[in-house]
Amino acid sequence: MLRLIDRLREPMNLLLLAAAMVSGVLLGEMIDAVAIGAIVAVNTAIGLIQEGRANRALATLEQLSVPEATVVRDGVTRRIPTRELVPGDVVRISAGDRIPADGRLLVADALEVDESLLTGEAVPVQKSPSAHDRTTPREPEALDRVSWGTHATRGSGVAEVTGTGTDTMLGRIATSLDVAPRPTPLQIELARLSTRLGTAAVVIAAVVFAITLVRVGVSTEGLERSFLSAVALAVAAVPEGLPTVTLVALAAGVRRMALHQAIVRRLTAVETLGSATVIVTDKTGTITQNRMTVTSVWALGTGTVTPTELDPGLATVARRIAALVNDATLDPPTGDPMELALLRFAGTDVTADVYRQWPRLSTFPVDSERMRMSTVHEVDAGVAVFVKGAPETLLRRCVAGIEPDGTARSLTDDERADVLDSSRELASHGMRVLGLAQRTDRTMPRDADEAERDLTFVALIGLEDPVRPDAATTLAAAGAAGMRVLMATGDHPDTAMAIAADVGLDTSVPPVTGGQIAEFGLPDDPLATFVYARIEPQQKLDLVKALQERGEVVAMTGDGVNDAPALRRADIGVALGERGSDVAREAADMVVTNDDLATIVTATREGRGIYDNIRKVVDYLVAGNLSEIVVVVGALLFLPGLGVPLLPLQLLWVNLLTDGLPALALGVDRNDDGLMARQPRPRSDHLLGRRRLGHLTVRGGIMGGACLGTLAVSISLQGLEPDRARTMLLTTLVVLHLLYAFVARQPASASLRDRFAPAGWLGTPWLVVAVVAGVTLHLLVVVWEPAQLVFHTTALGAYDWLLIAAGAGVGLLAVAVHRRLGGGTGVVRGRS
């Protein structure tokens, strides 16, 4: 009911209702009054249906991006929507997770939580469980509590849910607020467009009022007729349904993107996707399959061997470290794919055994600076520290190495060089390489620096992650669409370059490393290389900024907590759904649920198609409505004997037929086959800039001129009879405006062959149905006697129909030629 009231309160509907009252009360034209009221009702119903359809589609999409939590129920770990959590549930929390509910910590492993949403303090808070009585009232600053809406920035933990939804601290705050969703920039632009056209229509309506009054004479009836004509023209000239049709187009396109596993979180991403010129992507999961397997192991005195060829004593130590320095689980498989691969390398029998023999005491999670992860475990003589990490950083912490027989001795400089050379050799084959190390101590280390000192090097682990079969094709398609793909990865430069070569990226230019950026800064031309390796999250942010300063429109992928600033800064932030953190997903504009780069390129194509469809709707409505103004003003000026050229009800009939179903069909039109052969849409390409408005004005003038020309020819040959003349003018205008939809849907760059091929000319079946239905309904108004009485039309002869067909055909051909000769979108073919 509220939506209905809002619709009826719109300025144009209020004007129409006022016009109906004038017709019925002052003029006594009850048929006209009822007809105008009926048109208001039909327009309102169509608008409500379109709006409801769009809202339902967007609500469905919101369900696809519902946040999930890892919960332990009946001893089974599973992922469920957070809305299904209940007090008493036990949830697991990892770095990057959004805390799904208020809870009390049961276990905390170096857990730090960003509570700035509640406290305003940017420094993460270190959390730890305590032995508080469970009936103790909750204190906001309690270190054993976690709050819904905050984020884990480091470590892991287990918490018991104490409150969900509105029973949480953030929920109570949220219920006190009622904030309406902000419109997207595109919706703002379209609303501004409607306002400008409305202002212009009011001015023109005032002019029409004055001219009409002169034509029909100054009298009470003349004033009323002039008022109705001016109101009808103002209503017909403004495409008031444009924002709603646009929302339908956005919703339909976003739903198509969801079918391709790209979930749009913010509609602004759809508006920007068609402009993307650079994609900054990770390697793992996007270009590769993210199905890691340990295929090679290197150790001192052994060289590179397969896991099954490894010396038994050394294998026992390596598998122990792989199992213990690990937060993944095999049953069910949860966690990072690299850690899952290490668990498979360790073996289920080894994993279960070492968990019992080596209970974990604490964890020092991996971070972008240390590039290592350490766990501390209880042993009889004290504690044991096990470490995995990037070989070059791990080796700096090692003082000894293990021989194949299990004995440890000091590392020589030559052996250190052998470790690094072997690491580069494995990486050059596209492997991800990890170093393993260990140490024992009598006392518990206080921090990571103390834990990771005087280590004993154990082995290098080489993990293979196959390239996606379609990766090379995807990168080639992106290049053909004018988009440059940069690989920005934390992996070793040799690994990154090997993968880059496999997928067809230019490897003639050496990679830029994070170390080089730290020392010398980013290159003057960030696009000079295709590969950035060992790059840190802050450096990704700097890279995005540098690209944007060059005028590039940047889409960037990310999955970690530290990627959030770069995702927010990018023009299009893309979170990886399979392995991405909640923090990354919330910072992103779009979530790719399968982590595949091909999905991002496909989403870009859909984004371009959505914008194209909205442009078609704008072109169709604006040019068509301008033609109505040209017809009315032109007839008043040059055909004075006709009096009022089109009656108010006739103008409203044109508006109803042409601005409804055809515009909606254009909004959900199929994508043009040449979308990805174009250059990305420049930022300056506005839906209705001065140049485009000029072109649409010319087209409106051509169509209006064709209608007036048809009428002039008819009058010169058959004389002037007002009802027949108005019927011819009305029919020519309706037919020409409806057929113009087929011209508006075609790309300006389409070849003549494509333009006249059935698929290129007709578009979707919905557009054909909309145009045929519009023409059929208008024929009923012309030939059916009851409708003739309502709309003041008259039957036409065969000669009249020939003139209408000729006039509409000439007008349609003229606007098509104008579009072809430079009055179109100005699309430029893309570069490779």
Explain this structure:
- By secondary structure, the chain is of the alpha+beta class.
- Helices cover about 50% and strands about 15% of the residues.
- The chain has 31 helices and 26 strands.
- Strands 10, 11, 14, 15, 16, 17, 18, 19 and 20 form a nine-stranded mixed β-sheet that branches. An eight-stranded mixed β-sheet has the order 8-26-25-24-9-21-23-22, sandwiched between helices. Strands 1, 2, 3, 4, 5, 6 and 7 form a seven-stranded antiparallel β-sheet that branches.
- Helix 3 runs parallel beside helix 23, helix 8 packs antiparallel against helix 22 and helix 8 packs parallel to helix 24.
- The relative contact order is 0.09.
- The C terminus is likely disordered.
Q: Brief description of this entry?
A:
The chain is α+β, with helices and mostly antiparallel strands. The chain is built from 31 helices and 26 strands.
